[in-house]
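Researcher: Next sequence.
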Amino acid sequence: MNMKGKREPQSHNLLQSTRGPGFFHKQSELMIMLPEVPQLRNIFDLFVVNGNGTGAESGAGAETEAGAEGLDPAASIELSDVADCLRTMGLSPSDHWLATRLAEHLRRREAMGPVGAAFSQRASFELVLTLYCQMAEEEEGPSAEDALQVLRSRDPRGTGVLPYSELRHMLTTMGDRLDEAEVFSLLHCASDIAGNVHYEHLVHRVFAKDEQAEERLLQARLYLQAVGRNAIDMDMAKRDEFIDALRRSDPTRSGFIEPKRLLELLNRNDERFTGEELQLLTQGMEDTKCERGINYRRFLQFIMNE
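Model: Next structure:
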């Protein structure tokens, strides 16, 4: 049997083709390559409030100077605003679903000690985007064929229509119940003058694929994959600054750096890494043949995705 291969998404090709050897992408670069992500960031920024009680003007991909403790207020939102932020992004998180997911993140932050406690009540864009991806995947629900089977079982003569009143009763009393306004909005376009609803037309309209939403979800996943799992609790401005420093230290784009120079970069913000600790962290990342140093792309991948 001759089967055609599935075409790889254009955004995925773009991300792969622009990734240089030994390089990670900065946040601002990812925003350009994945144009659906800045749209989600713009929604997130609506909920960012600075110290004066007004919306922050950070913008998509803007690099802000991190505060001394915790997440920068100009790059994070209150946990209490996460639900409304996700709703504005087009999802419908229940209180229970969101409370369960945030509790997991809070437990991890508490395990980090004082560092985690400093930003325990704030959410970064990357955390909100992680929740966005998790919920979008879980919201897939029943298929169009599942819905048609249920409706056809109530139409034994195969007329293709059901009374408006019967569908209204089903939608307001079964499953995820709708209110009267939602029912009218859903049914009136598929009903005829006799008060019957052409349910196949209705199902096809309800289950029509939103290509833009699918592409937005794909690009959100690619963004999170590129920045690493630890990005939800990471100062993205410092991450980008570190990537810049690595690139400047490797003008030939070899993907390698001397251990001494890597240690200097790690300790440039008053960190306290020792040579012994770095050696333990980078075991198996050294170029033993040409002695070019440490493969810093593997090192970045390790610290950002562990």
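Model: The first helix runs from residue 10 to 17. Residues 1-8, 51-69 have pLDDT under 50 and may be disordered.
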